[in-house]
Amino acid sequence: TMGYGLNSFTDFDEPLDILTHLMVGSEGTLGFISKVVFETLPVEPHTATALLVFARLEDATDSLESLIDAGAKTLELMDPAAIAAARAAVGVGGGAGNSRDPLGQVTAPTQTALLVESRASDQDELVDRAEALRRTLSGLRLASPVAFATSSTERDRLWMARNGLYTAVAGARPRGSTALLEDIAVPVARLSQTCAGLADLFAQHGFADSVIFGHAKDGNIHFMLTLDLDQAEQLNRLEDFTENMVDLVLAEGGTLKAEHGTGRVMAPFVRHQFGDELYEVQCQIKRLFDPDGVLAPGVLISDDQRGHMAHIKTMPRVDRAFDDCVECGYCEPSCPALNLTLSPRGRIAALRTIATLPPRNKRAAERLFAYDGVDTCAADSLCVIACPVGIDTGKLMKTQRSLRHSPAVQAAGALVARHWGGAVELLRAALVAASAIPGPVLAAITKTARTVLPKDWIPLAGNDLPGPGTRRRGGVVGDQAGPVSGAYFPSCVNSLFAPAPGGPGVGAALDQLCRAAGIALLVPKPIGSLCCGTVWESKGLTAGANAMARMTFDALWQASGGGALPVVCDAASCSHGLQALADRLDETRAERASRLRVVDSVSFVLNEVVPRLRIDRVLGGIAVHPTCSTVQLGAKDDLIALAGLVAKTVFVPPTWGCCAFAGDRGMLHPELTKAATRPEAEAVWAAEAEPGRFDAYVSANRTCELGISRATGRIYRHVLEVLAANSHAL
């Protein structure tokens, strides 16, 4: 019965049920599962979460059975070493009352924590269940008072420490070492003895820094070892430890794998766990499904008693920028290139592999990586938000681009930066000329040019290429007689590209909104020659980025009155770029730049302008495309809030993500934007099945509007344009 707790095959209604149950958990040894349909359980929406602190690990594990009997739905264990690692990851030293420390109740180095959670279908039921837990807690040996959190913010703080434990420990490992995570389960009643035995084995085999954490409610715990797998002595220690650990877990009536797959690491011990008779049954079933032994060899079933020591994956020291990467994959869902080339994890894994190759193979691999890794990275840096150890793969790929450029190319980039006003006029003239050429002809011309010139410099233009926007000029926008409420930095993107058809553009909309609110914004006089510098940084032109940063900062410092006024920018990506000016400045300027308050126009209007306006909510529905920069700026909720002021319903596609237009990258590599936006476009089309669902489509950045408009076939415009059309002075 393969461990499914069935008395006989007669428990199955149909032969197909037998095959289904055999396939579940077979890890590819019996076949490949191409599709899965789950029977789901309803979510209980009301939740209360608390952190229970115990003086010792055994006090926590001894309490599990009573907590389970009291109705605890979740019991997550963190031993003292795990708590220390979690605190180090968030940069705190601990201590009660530390608001940055989700483990602030833990005050002694030997204390252990259990994260307990109760869930219910309604609030009254939750109160009853939490009260049942409280009665049980009164009889436990707790080291600190317990308070249940019900708000999502408070609960998220508590879960933050637990969810990031693997990467917190792995990220703190010595450079070049590997973090090995193991997964075992024992009867809950035997968990205390098992944890004590593991602690003894850690000490015996020299793994003093190991941590224990996991899903204690099910007797399922994880522990992590960090060691340098390039050293024979450490490999020998690992082998000895593994054999002792197997004996310990099986002696406690446990299983060598629980939620994680058996894989090749535990395959040599499967016979030991199940016994010769049941192991032979498994081998017979394997031969029936796979007589030639081609499916997942060495997984689950293996005659190699040292198979777990073969093909060990090491973590070579390559670059301090990403050596901390544990390849956890948390970054992958946010990557625009995930379904096209490489994810952030894939890029780092590729760089590690390339570093170990001989010179001839390395050159060939680098040529492949140039497109898969460097060219098709949108460099939006959403990955750093998801990364528990703070690796910015987007920034890393910008560095790779900079390494391509010769000193002459870098000097040319700096020259363009110093004469950006003239360069913008040349680009505007090119757009005027391009607008006179039929779209198919323009696409053919640029496509031909890209066959002989570098694709990373020649855009693929077509029908959706807009004409030039409005020239930027210094002066005052808004109410000329009103109080100056900020320095305004109109983006050169909006000067290069005309607004979406039928709209005035974000600059005109912001001017109209400020007039209605009775306030003014001061535009720096040399604005026509200034830029946030993102275009240079994105292309790896560091000299140009630095030159532009100096000029832009000097102008903004003066316009803002030495930082007294906020700096308002009308393109989210440029707002984000301006916030990073200090990174490209000398020490004196950087110190002053840190005092500049850069605010995206979306947030500025919501907080400073909207309170002075009367707004008509006349639209039925509005679709919103957040951008990677609005997330980086913390302005995503502000964007959605502005849309909600003018529409009865606001739709944010659940599959939204970075459009990967990334300035000009969507024109240089349109396949990247196509792959990145497909899920969001499908969600928008599905939502439109309801007739008249959306009266407008909005975003917060002109190039992103181009990218998502291309993907959906709908006209996206800046949210301020829609707001201005439905706003009036009080």
General description of the model:
This protein is of the alpha/beta class. The chain is built from 31 helices and 17 strands. A six-stranded antiparallel beta sheet has the order 1-3-2-5-6-4, with helices on both faces. The chain has a five-stranded mixed beta sheet with strand order 7-9-8-10-11. A four-stranded parallel beta sheet has the order 14-13-15-16. A hairpin with a 4-residue loop joins strand 5 (211-215) and strand 6.
Shape: globular
Strand content: 5-15%
Low-confidence stretches: 1-9, 92-99
What is the first-to-last residue Cα distance? 75 Å
| Oligomeric category | single chain
Total DSSP helices? 31
Instruction: Report the count of strand segments.
Output: 17
Which class best fits the helix and strand makeup?
Answer: alpha/beta
Whole-angstrom Rg:
30 Å
Query: Quick one: biggest sheet?
Result: 6 strands, antiparallel
Integer average pLDDT = 90
Strand adjacency order, main sheet: 1-3-2-5-6-4
Q: Level of helix content?
A: 40-55%
